[in-house]
């Protein structure tokens, strides 16, 4: 059994994308992004096209454009995932 890969930033196991553990300085991709690439407030999208906050903003905007309430869509997804 191999040793688990632990993120040096958040100290949690790196499971997804663990093959890139060394590339991302022994961190999760998101931890690496926030430490080395993300500029400004970590809760606000940065200029990196891979920034998760940017993706969330784009999806939220598209849902609104389609006439779907983003918060309602999130609530339905949460309820479905946890069978509420």
Structure in words:
This protein has 3 helices and no strands. With 84 residues, it is mainly α. The chain is flat, with a radius of gyration of 16 Å. It starts with 28 loop residues before the first helix and ends with a helix.
Task: Give the tags.
84 residues; flat; 42% helix; mainly alpha
In short:
By secondary structure, the chain is an all-alpha fold. The chain contains 3 helices and no strands.
So what's the overall shape? flat
Structural class: mainly alpha
The total beta strand count reads 0
- Biggest sheet overview: none
Rg calculated over all Cα atoms = 16 Å
Strand-and-helix sequence, N→C?
Answer: HHH
Uncertain segments of ≥5 residues (pLDDT<50)? none
- Average pLDDT across residues? 95
């Amino acid at each position: 059994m191999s040793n688990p890969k632990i993120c040096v930033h958040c100290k949690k196991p790196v499971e997804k994308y663990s093959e890139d553990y060394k590339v991302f300085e022994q961190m999760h991709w998101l931890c690496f992004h926030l430490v080395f690439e993300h500029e400004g407030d970590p809760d606000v999208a940065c200029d990196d096209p891979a920034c998760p906050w940017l993706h969330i903003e784009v999806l939220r905007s598209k849902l609104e454009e389609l006439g779907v309430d983003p918060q309602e869509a999130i609530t339905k997804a949460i309820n479905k995932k946890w069978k509420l």
